[in-house]
Amino acid sequence: MKKTVNILVTLLFALGLFSCGQGKSDGDKGALASSAAEKVYVAPGEHDEFYAFLSGGFSGQLSVYGLPSGRLFKVIDVFSQDPQESYGYSDETKPMLNTSFGFVPWDDAHHPDISQTKGVLDGRWVFINANNTPRIARIDLTTFETAEILEIPNSAGNHSSPFVTENTEYVVAGTRFSVPIPQRDMSIKDYKGNFKGALSFISVDPENGGMELAFQILMPGFDYDLAHPGRDKSHGWFFFTTYNTEEANSLLEVNASQNDKDFIAAVNWKKAEEYIKAGKFKTMPADYAHNVYSDETHSATSTMLKEVRVLDASELPGLVYFLPTPKSPHGVDVDPSGEYIIGNGKLSANLTVHSFTKMMDAIENKKFDGEAYGIPILKFEDVLAGTVNQAGLGPLHTEFDGEGNGYTSFFISSEVVKWKLGTWEVLDRKPVYYSVGHVMIPGGNSRDPFGKYLVSLNKITKDRFLPTGPEVTQSAQLFDISGDKMELLLDFPTIGEPHYAAGIPADIIAKNSRKIFKLSENKHKYAIKTSQEARVERNGNEVHVYMSMIRSHFTPDNIEGVKVGDKVYFHITNFEQDFDVPHGFAVIGGHNGELLIMPGATETLLWEPTKVGVWPFYCTDFCSALHQEMSGYVRVSPAGSNVPLTSSLGE
Ligand code: K7E
Ligand code: CUA
After folding, report:
1. Which protein residues touch ligand 2 with a CB less than 6 Å away?
2. Pairing label, strands 237-243, 261-268
3. pTM for the whole structure
4. Beta pairing class for 558-563 and 631-637
5. Atom of ligand 1 nearest to the CA of 131
6. Bridge-partner residues for 160, per DSSP?
7. Where does residue 572 rank: exposed (0-12), middle (13-18), buried (19+ CB within 10 A)?
8. pLDDT for 534-555, tens place per residue?
């Protein structure tokens, strides 16, 4: 058996490499056609039709593109420090990266998902997961900034997340790796039966988006790979793929590929809510950070939380059912009607589609085929709606166009395949360059997709772009899917590794985009509102500089009386009240990023001068014709000198 699996894996891999290496074929010609060029051409000054939010993968960030042009607009700082905006460097934003493991300046971000109301994208927030040190971030789509980060306890490899329910009642986060819960010192060999997987349900405040870990469901020690919510008729359910139902703890590529079928776990979260109400939970001690950024104080706070409510799936009937699904399924996707649950078995050539109606019938009639750790297993044949046969090799993820079609990525055969819901026939296939992970259709995982474009998010690009040394860019490819056949329009490079993406019509978001922060509403504790308040103050070896900036000077711009060994805090308020006029701030020898301060906001940069002298600081953002004049000096005297602390402007 082991040998067969080995051969299968080797064969699939070989096929993968083969298909990746084939080079240019038919699909290319479409991109050369002049009609394709017209379709992606957004004339200078014109706007794109869609926003696309592409996960940054191992960059830890989220990038914002326009479609169909593929133009990059912004990289939103989420889980990684960024010197460009001092994210994770400034005193105001450092708390955003606080965790129970301390300050964690990086992560691996996979799945952006936009908030929904009644199953339709509402464009208020986009959520994204950190895989490595489990966290969920909420990005505010009025500011395009990270507003909140919640750490997830009892999780490890926070991969099946974050996916939102129809009304953003919950953002759901599943663990990829099962671990001892609670964590403790034990032998890895005792994995089986002892490790557990936690599925976390994070409630979202409908008014302000505030996240709270409502409860966790403790599951058997499988790997929970991906997830999607039920919608419409299956609203109230959540589906998770599992692999390693073997509960192997070593050489997983072989040992976790033994079972012919793993499971899709169907979780009844309405039932979970009932159990919570009925007090059927245990309160477990936990340790996790909740970090919130305020647009009023322009500062983040980090709070450590100490407990979590846990429901045990093995003990609570009706909470979870297992749907057998071949073969180590990766993605699980639910069609817009909520009836079909698609398992993308990554070691399979077929797609398995389960029926929600059949699942409910089987549950009602208690037609079970055994159980795993007390969780009923449904019969494969009883829940099967159909199979998309021999569609390709290595299916990973499926999106929908709202016209009754599914689009599945095939990693190994490196293609996107369009197929029909209900008849399961393959309608079209197009090669991608190369080795696609997710595909994204704007709204393609909601009740109401905007089925005009599909973006294929590719792992390998090889010969597609100019070489840049051993590491070449990963990429996105844009397809027009408005006709019967898909048409390749455009390749564009991405930031980091784009796993998943989320797209939305621009007009839903653009009109709410924030232009400035009102200076009068600035509640930063070191903000000043008038240049008369500008000053320097000493408190032991701390020097606090209350500074303002406006085109084209700092107030003050000359500071004397600072000494080697001081900690100098520049608290700088941008007095501008105009759209698109941030100012920057940098000082020689600084050990952090620059500040880039938005109109009406305040930020702080810590500078610890190490050398005697007169040192300049300046604005880093070319803000006016007199930008080069926007600068100043700090005089640094020896430790113990008695030069008085003074500041001035224009003297
Ligand atoms: Cu398939 Cu992390 Cu969604 Cu990448 S995952 S591809
Ligand atoms: Cu302010 Cu340049």
Report:
1. 583, 619, 621-623, 627, 630
2. antiparallel
3. 0.95
4. parallel
5. 2
6. 174
7. buried
8. 999 999 999 999 999 999 999 9
